[in-house]
Every structure is written in C-alpha cells, then in structure tokens.
Design brief:
three-stranded antiparallel beta sheet, two-stranded antiparallel sheet, cilium, bacterial flagellum, Flagellar basal-body rod protein FlgC
Length: 144
C-alpha cells in the first residue's frame, strides 16, 4: 500500500497554512508603518491558494502557474486591496497639512483571526498525517 499521496496532501496543506501565518505575521509587523504622500509604503498581503488539476497537465504548464506541490495546489502571495487607514495625529512629524498620518491598511483583528484559523488547519493536517502514518504502521503489523 502506498501512503505517499496522503502524506503529500497533508504536507501541502501544512505548507499553505504556514504561508498564511507568515504573511499574517508580516502584515502585523508592518501595521504601524507610514504610507508616504506618494503612496509608497507597506501594503498588506494575502495568500491565495487554489487547486489545480494535475491530470493531463504538462510540467511546463504547471511550472508557469507558479509554486506547485504534490497535492495540486498553487500558492501565491498578492497585495490586498485594503485601503490605508488615516489617523489624526497633528503632533506627528509625518502628518500632512491636515494633521493626518496615513498607515498601512492592516486590520489587526482580521490578521489574528487568520493566524488562529491557520493554526487550527495546520493541526488538522498534522492529525491527518499522523493517522496515515498510524495506518501504514498497522499495515506492517498485519504480516508479523
């Protein structure tokens, strides 16, 4: 019996969830960075994972889609459409003429929710991998 596909699927899920945690942590770390008048500054990111059918697809076409893995998922990190947040801080040296400072549009509560959900999904993938491992070990015991 071959359990490698089960392991690959769980590993792909863990990789995606780890990417979500990494991006959410990056967003939180840059939540209080100032966006300049020219729009330059940190823009929140988000992880997009989509399933790609592997059957009948050539390696070159999968490679063109981006980072792929054994489970047929493509993961990309793209800028979010979240608008920058403006805070009235007239004493801040970075404030504009109206006394407003523009910060990166990071929603801290949403990012924390993303981290918690990714952690739970990661744990579920670990449980699935452990179940497949246990099944493989039980299969070895049948012959003994």
């Amino acid at each position: 019996m071959d359990y490698s596909q089960s392991f690959a699927i769980s590993a792909a899920g863990m990789q995606i969830e780890r990417s979500r945690v990494d991006v959410a942590a990056l967003n939180l770390a840059n939540a209080n960075t100032v966006v300049g008048a020219d729009g330059q500054g940190y823009h929140p990111m988000r992880v997009l994972a989509r399933h790609v059918g592997l059957h009948g697809a050539s390696f070159a076409s999968l490679l063109a889609l981006g980072q792929s893995n054994a489970a047929g998922s493509v993961v990309s990190v793209e800028p979010s459409e979240q608008a920058p947040r403006e805070v009235y801080e007239p004493g801040n040296p970075l404030a504009n003429a109206r006394g407003v400072v523009t910060y990166a549009g990071v929603d801290a509560a949403a990012e924390m929710t993303t981290i918690m959900a990714a952690m739970r999904s990661y744990e579920a993938n670990v449980a699935a991998m452990n179940a497949a491992r246990s099944m493989a070990l039980k299969t070895l015991d049948i012959g003994g």
